[in-house]
Design a protein that fits this description.
Blueprint lengths: L9 H10 L3 H31 L7 H10 L6 H9 L1
Helix pairs in contact: 2-3
Length: 86
């Protein structure tokens, strides 16, 4: 598990309380939903690559995502950005 911490000013906290019943729950949901969408995208890329290579597709979503990185089929956003700058 990974933990992320964010600090808000009093103004930012008040603004979040205006739009969200529970700002903590809102932030957690937003991050988890975005991660879910990225997972779906990574799995699609990886499954296509496994099929192209005639390889067996791992049994779990977690294994597919990790294999996509291990095989170099995807890069982190940081890696893509750093490579684009060079």
């Amino acid at each position: 598990m990974n933990t992320y911490t964010i600090e808000l000013t009093n103004t930012e906290k008040a603004a979040m309380e205006y739009i969200a019943y529970d700002p903590q729950a809102w932030v957690e949901n937003a991050l988890k939903e975005r991660a879910r969408l990225a997972t779906e995208e990574i799995i699609k890329i990886a499954v296509d690559k496994f099929l192209e290579a005639g390889q067996t597709i791992p049994g779990s979503r977690e294994e597919i995502v990790l294999a996509a990185y291990d095989n170099g089929w995807i890069q982190t956003a940081k890696q893509r950005t750093d490579n684009a700058i060079i």
